[in-house]
Amino acid sequence: MIEMVGVSKVYPGGSVALQDISVKIEKGEFVFLVGPTGAGKSTFIKLLFREELPTRGQIFFNGKNITRLRPNEVPYLRRRLGVVFQDFRLLPQKTVYENVAFAMEVVEASPREIKKRVPKVLEMVGLSHKLNARPHELSGGEQQRVALARALVNNPDVIIADEPTGNLDPDTSWEIMKLLNEINKKGTTLIVATHAKEVVDVMRKRVLQLENGRLVRDEERGVYSCEI
């Protein structure tokens, strides 16, 4: 489903974020991306949804080389990807319902589709009772659930989560990770960048470990440990 072939990313000024990454992620996998701050995790994720382009190498999504997409093709790629950020990135003036609906409006879904789909997804993440609340009225965990609902609402092939529990307490973090695991069980591919050692150690999913921009470990049913 996703394949990187010889991917490197060097930023202006010579800062090397990724070096010669080759990896394949199959449909339906749950993958943790781990490594210390500055290891290249965020760059790895930005390359997947074409926020950045690699300096060298190729990236394939469902067999299509996304490094060669024309600008007008990029939105079609992003419809197949749901992205969840550490800082939620909700629109403060909009309600929970409106925040999730906005993701469908962007891809020009019909009002009928939006009215049908948004309540279902909010029910899935346990927020049916909060659809008229605004972000400032929600806890951090509830805000992250809204962000997750927004990522899910267009029924993506892949969910990419960048430190989704980074701003949450341990109990709430586990709730979010259980939700992600349930989503994965229904067939959605999950790629989760995280520093949450306990979560990775308990869940025992595939682990990709980055160090100084290099992929130093690719382990099935792996643990967090960054010791080489």
Automatic annotation (TrEMBL):
Organism classification: Bacteria, Bacillati, Bacillota, Clostridia, Thermosediminibacterales
A GO CC term assigned to this protein in UniProt: plasma membrane
GO terms (BP aspect): cell division
Family: Belongs to the ABC transporter superfamily.
Transferase found in the keyword field: no
Subcellular location: Cell membrane
Annotated protein name in UniProt: Cell division ATP-binding protein FtsE
Summary of subunit composition and partner proteins: Homodimer. Forms a membrane-associated complex with FtsX.
